[in-house]
Design goal:
Elements lengths: L5 E3 L7 H10 L10 H5 L7 H4 L5 E2 L8 H7 L4 E6 L2 H10 L1 H10 L6 H13 L8 H4 L2 H18 L5 E5 L4 H8 L14 H9 L2 H11 L8
Parallel strand pairs: 1-2, 1-3, 3-4
Protein name: Sulfotransferase domain-containing protein
Organism: Lichtheimia ramosa
Length: 223
């Protein structure tokens, strides 16, 4: 099994879904894994090769919660940090995945067991549980400080030759040069922006999609 070649280090809502689509276009295969136990018990060894079997790129949560461990385990992997201004990031999270999480809390009893496990994972891994705690999330300065601290950690700890910082709105050129692959003859993806997320969420299509994917044993990672 080939090891991970690309590790996404950016939080959700920084263009990670566009990056996921872009990596698929470039021939990388991204794994929508769930690593609940690995996060809760960092002292335990993890069979990363088994968890990422068949995939050579991973972005968004929950992978981003393990960047420190994955970059050591896969020393040849390249790290892509998707980034944006903390103020716009917070607004995007609030109008999209925070709303979705709050809606999911009201639908908990009707969730499948699989979706309940996904929610439990999200409560542990994503923003210290703030998506499911309105009081915690509404402390805007604390949430933005968490985001900025993560970005600063990546910049300080990932060797410069392994790191590409990709600002929201960038296209193919910088990414492809960093990965040493040709630029595809298609526009760079613009996936899952706030407006499309809100449109799908408000009319119920996104919730239906998540339920359908959960029933098939898949997760829908949006960013």
């Amino acid at each position: 099994m080939p090891p991970l070649k690309v590790i996404g280090a950016g939080y959700g809502r920084t263009g990670t879904d566009s990056l996921r689509t872009a990596l698929n276009i470039l021939g990388y295969y991204r794994h929508p894994e769930v690593f609940h136990d690995a996060f809760l018990h960092p002292e335990k060894p993890v069979d990363w090769d088994m968890l990422y079997e068949g995939f050579d790129a991973a972005v968004d949560w929950p992978t981003v919660s393990f960047v420190d461990r994955l970059m050591k385990y896969y020393p040849d992997a390249k790290i892509v940090l998707t980034d944006r201004d903390a103020d716009s990031w917070y607004r995007s999270v609030k109008s999209t995945i925070f709303n979705l999480a709050q809606e999911g809390m009201r639908d908990y009893d009707s969730m499948t067991d699989y979706m309940k496990r996904i929610r439990e994972m999200a409560q542990v891994l994503i923003l210290d549980g703030a998506l499911y705690d309105a009081d915690k999330f509404n402390d805007e300065e604390a949430i933005k400080a968490m985001y900025n601290a993560h970005v600063a950690w990546v910049k300080e700890n990932v060797p410069s030759e392994r790191l590409y910082i990709m600002q929201l709105g960038e296209g193919w050129e910088g990414l492809c040069k960093f990965l040493d692959v040709p630029v595809p003859d298609v526009p760079y993806p613009s996936a899952n922006n706030s407006k499309s997320f809100q449109d799908e969420f408000l009319d119920g299509r996104l919730q239906e999609t998540i339920v359908n994917q959960a029933q098939q044993g898949k997760t829908a990672q949006s960013a």
